[in-house]
Amino acid sequence: MPDIKAIQQELLAGKLDGWLFYDFHHRDPIAYRVLGLTPGMVTRRWFYLIPAKGEPRKLVHRIESHALDALPGEKIPYAGRQELQKGLSKLLGKSKKLAMQYSPKNAIPYVSMVDAGTVELIRSFKRTVVTSAELVQKFEARWTPDQLQTHLQAARVIDGIMQQSFGQAASYVRQGKQLTEYALQQWIVEQFHANLLHAEDPPIVAVGPHAGDPHYAPQPGTSSTIREGDLLLLDMWAKTRAPNSVYYDITWTGYLGPEVPEKYTRVFDVVRAGRDAAIHFVQDAVKQGRTIHGWQVDRAAREVIRKAGYGKYFVHRTGHSIGQDIHGNGANMDGLETQDDRTVMPHTCFSVEPGVYLPEFGIRSEVNMYIADRQARVTGAIQNEIIPVLA
Q1: pLDDT digits (tens, 9 = 90+) for 357-383
Q2: Whole-model pTM?
Q3: Looking at the domain 4-138, which fold is it?
């Protein structure tokens, strides 16, 4: 059940007349989370309006009239097109300025769930549609204390699996046994299962040029063998199986040899400096009570890497929101792919993961940051140098 009063307070503060939810065939998972709905059979359109003042109202098709019964408010049924139009007019009432899961020019794709035609339909009633991006952060992306604990629990386990994974690679190399990227990936997946962790997708295991591909996915039969002298990049993410648990997501690099070559340490030092610049920027702002935006965090890391001469090799945003999905619906640390102007707000979490991707190898260093009321912290272990795995 949504906290109607809290939502209405935010609507009034934002000078909005209402938050209009809409779904068709489960296209908007955000709506289900904010409203606390369990997805059922949805083959017809439904609308749910939380007005800034007064009782909510819902518009549902007659053959799925129970779709929103778990929510409070007057029910308006419809069947045909004309009845839908009439029902929408009644639903909207005197509301003029409405928030929807919409992003102007699709600037923030994660909240752009409502199709253009539906936005046009609402505008045809002489209503103004604005983005719900900040509302989504406040009522979907912020963590409860229990969710934070699931994150920290996953962090402890995954930090351990990360170190064990480098040890597994070292063991095979020392024994002269073949270990492919894919085989190590599957071994990590087994460790997740053994520790009751869940991940929608398997981790990234990459050596050599594959580490220069930010989203490389090793495949059976085509992945590279991990050999002595290789740079090994591991990116793993998972969450506990507790209800509403949230992800932990990290990337580390290791070198299959006793001493890390200077060409690798030079790039790692640049990436680490960019990572730390972003971390310190966030920590200082939160401590001082300053409002900051996602794009500013990205800039803090990107400027360090640009000034070191690697700007064109940093080809993705600095970080992403983390939630029940690995890519959550809060602010991303992004001034490259988008200009994410959402505020970095308390009780949210995001990754900080700058990287430099060269043709022969790539290096990324990733941590997670959680924002408390007056403190920002990294929630797990921090890598400060490339691990010489065979040392």
Answers
A1: 999 999 999 999 999 999 999 999 999
A2: 0.94
A3: Creatine Amidinohydrolase; Chain A, domain 1 (3.40.350)
